Amino acid sequence: MKQEGAAEAPFLATPLQYLKGVGPRRAADFERAGLKTVEDLLYRFPIRYEDRSRLQTIASLKPGQPASISGRILACGLRSTRRPGFKIFEASIDDGSRSIRAVWLNQPFLRDILVRGQHLVLYGAVEMYGRLVFDALQRLPPDLAEQLAEDLRLRLRLPTRVAALHAMHFPPADARLDALNRFATPAQQRLIFEEAFLFQMGLLARRRSAAAERKPIDIRVDDRIRESARRVLPFKLTNGQKQALKEIVDDMRSPHPMNRLLQGDVGAGKTIVALLAALVAMENGLQVAFMAPTEILAEQHFLNISRLLQASRFRVALLTGSTAASARRQQLAEIEAGTIDLVVGTHALVQGDVRFKQLGLAVIDEQHRFGVLQRATLRTKALHPDVLVMTATPIPRTLALTVYGDLDVSMIRELPAGRVPIRTVAKPESRRDEIHEFVRGQLDGGRQVYVVYPLVEESAKVDVKAATEMADTLASDVFPQYRVGLLHGRMKADGRDRVMKAFAAGDVDILVSTTVVEVGIDVQNASVMLVEHAERFGLSQLHQLRGRVGRDRHQSYCFLVYQSPLSDEARERLKAMTETTDGFEIAERDLTLRGPGDFFGTRQAGLPTFRLVDLVRDRELLATAHREAEQWIAKSTPSGPALEKLLTSWEERFKLIQVG
Q1: What DSSP character marks residue 37?
Q2: Predicted TM-score of the model (pTM)
Q3: What is the pLDDT at residue 125?
Q4: Which residue among 4, 484, 508, 524 is least packed, with the fewest CB closer than 10 Å?
Q5: Averaged over 606-632, what is the pLDDT?
Q6: How many Cβ atoms sit within 10 Å of the Cβ of residue 90?
Q7: Who wins on pLDDT, 536 or 494?
Q8: Mean pLDDT of 368-394
Q9: 164: burial class by Cβ within 10 Å (0-12, 13-18, 19+)?
């Protein structure tokens, strides 16, 4: 026995990597599972035994039970998932009795092994999908009512509703898997178009319903009001600003409430256009509500508007969540009495205790953060106020057709005359010294500089500490001869105000800040925007920050300092920033990178709940649906009970809140 055991021991102790077909890499995988030697392998016993020799027909399979089948591959392919790098290989298998879908998780190599037409034997757990759906499809009446007009369906070469539903759940044998996964089959395209068409039809019907409302007061514009506007205006308007203002004022003079979206690139001058519209409302004896998504932006709007209206007879107030109780009570009384003409605020303006004497215009600085619900609530503060929504960055057309589809659109494409395009450079943090040397040259030339840190909600304290330490380092070690200021969201309002005023007045040379400078501060002498940890910012956010400089005739610069290694998406963001300064192109790229939910922040944005439509993938179909819906509603002119029924079912179907 001893002699036999001595002969066996060396083999049992053999490392697994020396077995044929293992090698060092697979041996490392085995070791992580606790298997190092041949003995380890032989003593890892089966936990159960299964008979895989008994083949079953696909038609006889029962959910929840393992089974072996034999069949032919009808179609197969690899598809991506939302998880980076995680792939799924799928195959449609047919054995003559029925077909079934086989799925392999994260085994992309199967693409090179399994091909269409191949016969194979499979073993695995059976999961139920579509047995109930199949029964429902069998019960569908063949003459099921169409949701698309027959001439429209035939013109666009779309299958019938019944045929599309059948093919959607049980694709025909000749359907290509890649087309199915791209939602490019005729059945999929039909159902996507149908959903997009019904959505656009509801939006247009809602606009028609809103157009039937009448405002209680006629707004007039005469020479006295024009002169009042000229006194407020600090500079000559661009042609784009003039056109936008004309469209807005024409809406305000209409007997129907305005519902307009004003969009333009960073620095295009949207705020002054909105203020001139506010002046028209106030000169007609009406009050104005001017809303921003954050307190610091509301404060900045308040400072700018107060400065521009300083010589006028109109009173401006700031009302936010931070307003002291006694001051708030006083302001609420004055708003209700009508002695305050323009109120700047946050969501606090839509709270129940704010009552206006006669609210004529609501200006909403939306910035993709201010929800549909707040927009709707604000409209209930008056009988039928005009509503002007401004966006901080341009909105891609497909999103404008959905999120803001019930609004008319004014666009300011051009920037004020004499602006020089900003030069943007992305550099790793290892080259920070070079950047500081360049910044020193700008400071020596009398310019001012922004240094921005990202602020992540979960680690706000850590980020504020990092920004504070950076300000100290810049002031003591890097630029000791220059004045450094610090601005962050945890400072009290008067402290932030003091720092911003000092920077605007030129009493601070370098402003170190968390992202609170994203929008609103306008310091023409600032020529450098230095963004630390640029990889942590979104694309639209980076574009917003860049827009804080380049506001006069001097050359301005944006430095994006990043920490390696970069993710693929972060690299794409920085690449986009260095390739273009066009906000409309930036918005399109941002939508493609992030998707519509992240672009707006789904919970607040009021994005419609689509079953099939993907706002990025289905851009062309959305545009076609919009065009066809416009033609349909122009011909059909629904009104009265029919219009109400359409709107009610539409809002319930797409889970949207009435805004118009």
Answers
A1: B
A2: 0.67
A3: 85
A4: 4
A5: 82
A6: 17
A7: 536
A8: 66
A9: buried
